[in-house]
Design goal:
The structure holds two protein chains of two kinds.
Chain A: H1 13-24, H2 26-37, E1 40-42, H3 51-70, H4 80-89, H5 94-122, H6 130-152, H7 157-171, H8 177-185, H9 192-224, E2 251-253, H10 254-279, H11 312-320, H12 323-343, H13 348-367, H14 370-383, H15 388-391, H16 404-425, H17 442-458, H18 460-463
Antiparallel strand pairs in A: 1-2
Chain B: H1 16-42, H2 48-52, E1 57-60, E2 69-74, E3 77-83, H3 86-95, E4 128-132, E5 143-145, E6 161-163, E7 170-171, E8 192-196, E9 199-202
Classes of the chains: A mainly alpha, B alpha+beta.
């Protein structure tokens, strides 16, 4: 406990007020110092480091606009669509608040995808930051749930059929699936009960969890300290800077240095964000799909349905998992077992165990429907991210000091991910109309992309150790300007 | 604080009976928590009102000409009634080899006994096809591609059928799913019966 401090009666009023609070609530002052004015972040942050604080900004935008939308929205299957149109046409400023919320949803994913990619580039998930990364992945999962449930609320055609498809994903789980889907919907089809519970989750439950996870993400980050583009631990470097003899020399206080720095990023972000809100809120049907301006009709599926852009990469993995994909996976597992027998320097018992595991996996793959494995692939693609800290075995943390071909590999990974996104937006079936190319289907390309995505992560323990890393300097590289 | 020179505090010897009671009350608390959670979890299940809303639907199909399709709502789902032409019926023999489950033997969406044939319809009205228009993959409603011949997203030897716009599953004119498509099962045939020549009851198949 801090001592009760007396202050001179001649002190200025501001100092007196500050002292009064400091004696009664010292935690607030200590936390401010810990997380703002005495949080020493590496001085060599670059462009990629804007996206963390931007994600926090978008979270605030979504919460504030959401509070105002709930004042006018009606979570009732008979009234929901109308009430959204009412917000758009009759509520003063309603269109602005709603477009901020809908654009904010897409902006959230743009910012978060870039933020995650930054982590991959500079190895920000590696020891001792594993938990920071895991909390971040949990935030990503929550965000997906939040976006999915929020999308049902306008009760348009895409809302309805999107929810129908995703809830039916759960029914593909063997044995418990159909009952689980029934519990989620609360009815035999997506209906009023579903809308009401999704509203409750979207507005109360998931945001609370999300905020809790964001706090955990930041607290864990501030305990271990930020990584930087060089992947060098500044806490292990020399000590002492202008502000403190114990702080790392290469660190600068978050406030005012990075708080002011981030305002530049915020300004640029808000320019783009409001340009979209004002001039192109639908973004050609990618942020707000055109079919969602038609009220939900349980009897007719729109001729082409696709999720909103931020889900399409995972969605095309789901579509790619047909019987062909299952057969390919069986062959890959069989080859893996053969390779283990030939190359693995392990005991015969180990090899036997691997063979048994492989055979069981193949048997399971052939027992359950491709539909179930599609769900496993889609879920697995997200869950896999949680394990990244233990998959990466590269001697160098940052991409800067890894062999050059690692950069190319990451580039190919990004290209495949974007290609999967595009494929998920396109209609399934042959990509080219010429009959001789009818074998060249969307699903086939997506299958190759899916295999690449999983190969990239699952083979990372091996490929990340290949090649010679470049020498890592003692101190972070920084040019004052 | 930790730098105090000495302390007069001596910890009491461990009383193991307290530990026993702690474990016992912890277990009792866990049981109570499960009991408390039960009504909350069960509130997710369909309400009595939702369960009651599954009555059978009567449909008059006198106006449905050969080659035409009628859609009605049953339990919130679209049910299709298609009166097939002789050419459509003939196409089913050609698709026999290309569909995944030609005899409708799979049990995930069990086909009623009387419809477990090539046409997947009742013997006495073989040309009338009654299907739940919900894809067995992820629940989209497939769209009509009743016309035979090559067309976008479909194979060149298309004999007519249905196409699911969501994930590209295709079905023949008996609702049988083609091989190597995401949907594992044929389209569901609901329980149905004829009350009269042109009067269908969907949702019940036992004569009263």
């Amino acid at each position: 406990m801090a001592e009760f401090k007396e202050i001179s009666p001649n002190a200025p009023l501001g100092a007196k007020v500050g002292n009064w609070f400091n004696n009664r609530f010292p935690t607030a002052f200590a936390e401010y110092r810990k997380h703002m004015s005495e949080y020493y972040a590496p001085k060599n942050f670059n462009f990629w480091y804007f996206f963390g604080s931007l994600a926090l900004l978008v979270l605030v935008i979504q919460i504030v606009t959401g509070i105002f939308l709930v004042m006018h929205y009606k979570p009732d299957a008979a009234k929901a669509f109308e009430s959204v149109e009412y917000i758009m046409r009759d509520v003063p400023g309603g269109w602005f608040i709603r477009y901020m919320h809908s654009t904010g949803a897409s902006a959230f994913f743009v910012v978060v995808y870039l933020h995650m990619f930054r982590g991959m580039l500079y190895g920000s998930y590696r020891k001792p930051r594993e938990l920071v990364w895991i909390f971040g992945c949990a935030i990503f999962l929550c965000l997906m749930a939040e976006a999915f449930m929020g999308y049902l609320l306008p009760w348009g055609q895409m809302s309805y059929w999107g929810a129908q498809v995703i809830v039916n994903l759960f029914s593909a789980i063997p044995f418990i699936g159909p009952d689980l889907a029934l519990l989620i919907r609360g009815d035999y089809v997506v209906g009023d009960a579903t809308l009401n519970r999704f509203f409750s989750f979207h507005v109360i439950a998931v945001p609370l969890v999300l905020i809790g996870l964001v706090v955990a993400h930041l607290l864990a980050l501030h305990d271990v300290g930020s990584n930087n583009p060089d992947g060098i631990e500044i806490k292990k470097g020399p000590k002492g800077n202008r502000w403190s003899p114990d702080a790392p020399t290469d660190g600068i206080p978050f406030h005012p240095y990075y708080s002011v720095h981030d305002i530049v990023g915020v300004c640029v972000f808000l320019m783009v964000y409001f340009a979209i809100v004002f001039f192109a809120p639908e973004v050609g049907g990618y942020f707000l799909e055109f079919n969602n301006f038609i009220p939900a009709d349980p009897l007719v599926t729109p001729s082409h349905i696709a999720p909103v852009w931020y889900f399409t990469a995972y969605y095309s993995m789901l579509r790619a998992t047909t019987d062909l994909m299952v057969n390919v996976l069986c062959v890959i597992i069989a080859l893996g077992v053969v390779l283990a027998f030939l190359k693995c320097k392990c005991s015969t018992v180990m090899k036997g165990g691997l063979a048994v595991i492989g055979l069981v996996a193949i048997a399971l793959l052939k027992t359950f429907d491709a539909k179930f494995w599609g769900v496993v692939v889609m879920g697995g693609a997200v869950i896999l991210l949680f394990f990244l800290p233990w998959l990466d075995r590269s001697p160098a943390r940052s991409i800067r000091y890894r062999p050059d071909w690692h950069k190319w590999l990451y580039a190919v990974f990004v290209i495949w991910f974007m290609l999967l996104m595009v494929l998920g937006i396109m209609v399934p079936g042959p990509i080219f109309s010429h009959p001789s190319l009818s074998w060249f289907t969307n699903e086939l390309v997506a299958m190759i992309g899916t295999l690449f995505y999983f190969g990239f992560f699952l083979l990372m323990p091996w490929w990340s150790q290949l090649g010679t890393p470049k020498p890592v300097p003692e101190r972070v590289t920084f040019k004052p300007h | 604080m930790s730098d105090a020179p000495s302390s007069n505090f001596t910890p009491a010897p461990l009383d193991s009976s307290k530990r026993t009671w702690l474990i016992a009350s912890g277990c009792a608390g866990a049981v109570g928590t499960v009991a408390l959670a039960t009504p909350f979890v069960s509130s997710f299940a369909p309400s009595e009102k939702a369960k009651a809303a599954g009555a059978a639907v009567e449909v008059d199909i006198a106006g449905v000409k050969p080659g035409e399709k009628l859609t009605v709502e049953w339990r919130g789902k679209p049910v299709w009634i298609l009166r097939r032409t002789p050419e459509m019926m003939a196409s089913l023999q050609k698709t026999d080899a290309e569909v995944a489950d030609p005899k409708s033997l799979r049990t995930a969406f069990p086909t009623p006994e009387y419809a477990r044939n090539e046409a997947r319809s009742r013997e006495d009205h073989k040309e009338v096809l009654v299907l739940v228009g919900i894809c067995t993959h992820l629940g989209c409603s497939p769209v009509d591609r009743l016309q035979a011949g090559a067309q976008p997203s479909l194979p060149d030897n298309w004999e007519g059928g249905f196409f699911c716009p969501c994930h590209g599953s295709t079905f023949d004119l008996a609702g049988r799913v083609f091989k190597n498509k995401p949907a594992p099962d044929n389209l569901e045939v609901p329980p149905y019966m004829f009350l009269a020549e042109n009067k269908l009851l969907i949702g019940e198949d036992k004569k009263a």
